[in-house]
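Example record used in the benchmark description.
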Amino acid sequence: MAEFWAKGVELGLKGKQLTEFVESQTRLQAQREERQAQREERQAQREREERQAQREREEKERQAQREREERQAQREREEREAQREERQMELKRLELQIKMEMKRLELQTKMVRVQNQHEAPRQRDDQQQMLNRASTLPAFTDGKDQIDTPDFTGEVEAVCLKKPLYDLLIGNIGGARRPDDPDVEWRMGAAQPAVEEEDPLPFANEDISELLRDDRATVHRRDQPQVVSAVTTRAQAKKDKTTTPLRVTNSSATAVVDRDRLIQLQEADLTLTKYRSRPVKEMTKGEGTVHFEVKAKILYRVFQHPRVNGGKPLRQVLVPQPLRRQVMEVAHDSIMGGHLGVKKTSDRIQAAFYWPRLHADVTRFCRSCDICQKTIPRGRVPKVPLQKMPLIDRPFKRVAIDLIGEIKPPSEAGHRWVLTLVDYATRYPEAVPLKKIDTETVAEALVDIFSRIGVPEEILTDLGTQFVSECMEEVNRLLSIRHLTTTPYHPMCNGLVEKFNATLKSTLKKLCSEQPRQWHRYINALLFAYREVPQESTGFSPFELMYGRTVRGPMQILKELWTKDVDTPEVKNSYQYVFELREKLEETLEIARENLRKSQDSGKHYYDRKAVNRKFTPGNKVLILLPTDHNKLLMQWKGPYEVEAVVGINDYKVNVGKKSKIYHANLLKLYVKRPPEAVQVAASVDEPAELDEFDGEELLELGDLHKKEGVDDVKLGPDLTEDQQKELHDFMGDFTHRFSDVPGSTSLVEHEVHLTSDVPVRSKPYPIPFQARESLKKDIDNMLKMGVIRESSSPYSSPVVVVKKKDGTNRVCIDFRKVNKITVFDPEPMPTAADLFRRLTGSKIFSKIDLSKGYWQIPVREEDIPKTAFATPDGTYECLRMPFGMVNSGATLKRGMRKMLKGMKNVVYYWDDLLVHTETFAEHLETLRELFSRLTKANLTVRPSKCILGTDNVDFIGHSLKEGQKGLLLENVTKILNAPRPETKKQVRSFLGLAGYYREFIPNFAAITAPLSDMTRKGCPNRILWGPAQEKAYQTVRDLMSRDPVLRLPDTAKEFILRTDASDEGIGAMLMQEHGGKPFPVSYASKKLSGAEKNYSTMEKECLAIVWGIKKFELYLQGVKFVLQTDHKPLTYLNSAKFVNNRIMRWVMYLQNFDMRVESIKGSDNVGADFLSRVCE
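Model output (structure tokens):
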């Protein structure tokens, strides 16, 4: 306080003035200290909350990791058990097969024995001699043997057993006779034996079933010669097996292209002309050099780098357009191409070939490869954001149902299955063991459960035949139950009962480990244990939510036995008990509902961290993740199939073969179809966009269903080097899918419509001209296909108007004025141009990026969709994407942009226009990659024709930016210069509004335009009385605009200079900064004096100019040191002199809040501010 007294005395204050001055300064000081303390307390509180949130996230992640490990271990145990059972079954099957084969051989043996009894004794003796000879063969496993028998004579490849079942088995080999037709003239020794023994090999793992495969085998017992047929040996079968030829992809590269044809195509290719005409000189490319040369009439690109090709020059053939696809097919699709990724394929091509934009072409080619798309791992296709299930607030309004089984071993009573049911509101479970799962049995079990809990309004099941059969549909119809089903192969939709199934199986396995066939008797005890424990999502046990009290369980009984303390409930009458029970149930369910909402938000937050909002439109080709043909537990991508319609937020109806089925988006992947070769060539020709003159943000202005613009439509800075252009082309190739005129759909934010009244707003539809209805219907159909709108039965209805554009086409607009009147305003702060331009100081390289229909990339919250309904002559529709014209649409877009760019530097945005600004090109490229990575994560697309990358001169927010200077936009200046002379009040206001956008560039704008603005006052005639003053003001504005004034961008690192001056008619201020030792203007400001202010003294006017100028530029001057220059010398003593004038004294007290140095300048030097204060003569 003492310093305030000293300061007041220094200012010459006495008595009451001094006391008031000290008190005011003391209050200000106390307020500043209090605000500082509050800021520190808020900062500390935020830090504590962030640490607590971080600890909770880490704990949840650890818990989730433990659960994943447990589930993985459980799956591994189940797989090992299944494999063990499968091996046992295989052994049993093989054993049974061998026994059956033995029985069959014994039967054939008996038949042969009966036949042999009728043969001559001589033949039996000869056969006995043959068998004796055959029995003397050595016991080796494989080899060639000489066989001399009545059935076959000659050399064969044989397999010998150490412990043979029979002496000799002759299979179905060439030259062998039938068992019932032996050679009756056979004599022992007629054929010369040629037995060649080989080293015996151990016969270890031979499968006996291989020797018993042929049904025509005949048995020879050791005690009686018999001949039977056997199988062909494996060696013989291996020799006879033919090799299947490899399948080779058909490629157009097999077409013969000779040298003359290559030269001809190079000369005819317009994209190679600039390389042929370019002089032969080396260009630096990093550490390497590049130049182009023609050798033997063939155009080459010669590239040399210390780390490439051993430092030797690498000569690359420049490939003309018709041959580029052939090169890519050989490098990627051929049998030795390997279907490698983009980078490896590009490297392989560049080892011998080159053409402009090679990397972008290879990227498109690889992404459209059919084989690569169908074999991509499932994990590389991102999941879509999690959708919240509706919260059910009434017990057993909706229940989830599923089946578990087949359970092995079955129970002692023959139960093999379990029917499970879980209530959505209370999480109350039911489980019934079943012996079979036909529809009748399942329906009887459900009716039995409903007899205890009541009939629900809705049931949710999968697509099992038991649940979708005609019998079950009839049961649902009789009980008035709405049947909901999940999509195929997407059990996550029924996650509530699936989670309970996992808990039931795991717990049941533990309970019945000693008596596995008694598992059905443990189910009731298991259900009690589950119902008694509080659920993590609700915070209450199912018993509490069901009965409104805690049931008496094992813990309560044990406590009573130990403490002998039994709670005696208060005696109440029936009415009081029912009333309190109902009140408690309602309160408990409300708390549980709130806990469920928090649990949903938390689960969605963690699930959506790596999710991408992928959308498909009718007509798109997609691949579907379906089971393989040989194993339904293995999944593979199949297709492509066509999307027929959008059924829900993430569900699509797909035409699979001759059927239409609904699939979830997580099972779908967009199929990129490779265009034919002719289209591939034509796609490289640059053509001007047809819709460049539109800004892409018109209300409900439709884009085509298919992508018309791509990276070829992006403009690059004209002063970029070739290396910089290539780096930008490579960057665009990595993010090709982001450059599209088809809007995406983000999950960053949803548009919410909060109304002050629940009464629906309806307006009578406006009449639509008949000639415009056909185009309106076509636009509506396109919007339906794009998923922007859907048919509606909402009680809300806003009218539609059709407005003609400049090109004669129609624009569809929705009049939301009545809905906007009852909409709660969203106070999201909007960006200001002054703040954005301040952040651009020092930047030399710019990239401007425009979102493709930014509003249409934001979905509308599901419960607010009916509020966007609008009526047309063909019906009522409602918006699924955020429409233009709603009062809070801009705030929602701003909030989404702020979330996406949070923490990112060197990027500013104004609505859906983004501007990347840096000092160096390397930093600029890094910022672009970070920005497009975030755009990819947010699933936002940018319009290529409105993007310009790597330029030093860019148009932004109606201004031209270049080398730290801010100028006028030529297009807007042309509109002002070409504007006709206004004749009415409305036209004058329009002209002043158009010119006033650049008033900071025009000194003394307020005074110059005063004759025009005076004509718009109340009481003046609607038709302007145009006089010399108005004409001079009109021409002066046009003249000043045509001079192309330039301002410097504010640099907060440099000191500001404020010059002010006053005249009898107005005051002016000019904010400047020094550049190169000379002051340059940053902004101009001027103001006409009111009637009372014109009566001020000269000193008061000059001081008023200072105070008004500082308030005008307070955003730049608050908290920094600056220089105040004035040509009124007495004001240089503002900080030390004593002023008797109370008005000036109040202003001096206000100026104490600023750190300024006052300088006096000559009036001749204050030309800028002096001019601002003068009224136009």
